[in-house]
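Please fill in the sequence for the structure shown.

STRUCTURE ENCODING:
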């Protein structure tokens, strides 16, 4: 199972939010590229980036730090937040991004997800952010009546590379991931599922790895910054 260290970008800084609330952010690094390099040097195989401002604006906002990370980190990078048209998708992939994450448009314009997955096989993921089992969009600010599993299953034949499933109420709260819901989603679809939200300890990572569903990976942010998870120890445990 892959561990994806998370770098959430707000106003050019690496931050973490609590429950997706932009008003409850903590700056962990003023230099996101240096943070990315630190993760890469520790041995991580992927990086997970989110343009938080972009998620609200509907277009890329933190392009400069993302580009700096792409130029220097040397590991595959996936990015979500404000990616809502083919031109933006193509532009990011041309700049060296390995995988774009489409979230809001997966609900608002699922045809775009299908078009992008056909045009760029292996490079398009769907981000499903959920609150109480229902999908939230536009930086988690808007709730829908779409159920998580319903949305995921709708892309079974689209050729998307992965589904990033985030339980909003667990995100940034250091209370542990929603293992039951994540495992249920992974069993319901054939698309690889990446767990996100609440991963706060090595025990959480092990529990996800051993949950009985074949998860592709797990994303962790605050726990890595706080030192609650030792990155090298976690990478070693998940590789064993």
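FILLED IN BY: designer on duty
SEQUENCE:
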């Amino acid at each position: 199972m892959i561990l994806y260290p998370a770098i959430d970008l707000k106003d050019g800084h690496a931050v973490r939010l609590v429950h997706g609330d932009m008003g409850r952010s903590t700056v962990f690094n003023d230099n996101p590229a240096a943070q990315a390099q630190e993760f890469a040097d520790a041995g991580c195989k992927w990086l997970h980036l989110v343009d938080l401002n972009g998620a609200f604006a509907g277009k890329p906002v933190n392009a400069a730090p993302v580009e700096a990370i792409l130029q220097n980190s040397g590991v595959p990078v996936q990015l979500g937040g404000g990616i809502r048209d083919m031109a933006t998708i193509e532009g990011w992939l041309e700049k060296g991004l390995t995988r774009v994450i489409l979230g809001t448009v997966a609900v608002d314009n699922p045809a775009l997800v299908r078009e992008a997955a056909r045009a760029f096989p292996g490079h398009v993921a769907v981000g499903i952010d959920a609150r109480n089992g229902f999908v939230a969009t536009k930086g988690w600010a808007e709730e829908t009546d779409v159920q998580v599993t319903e949305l995921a299953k709708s892309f079974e034949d689209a050729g998307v590379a992965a589904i990033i499933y985030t339980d909003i109420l667990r995100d940034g709260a250091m209370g542990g991931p929603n293992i039951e819901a994540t495992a249920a989603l992974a069993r319901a679809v054939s698309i690889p599922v990446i767990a996100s939200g609440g991963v706060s300890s090595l025990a959480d990572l092990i529990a996800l790895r051993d949950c009985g569903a074949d998860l592709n990976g797990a994303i962790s942010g605050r726990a890595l910054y706080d030192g609650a998870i030792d990155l090298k120890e976690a990478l070693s445990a998940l590789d064993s």
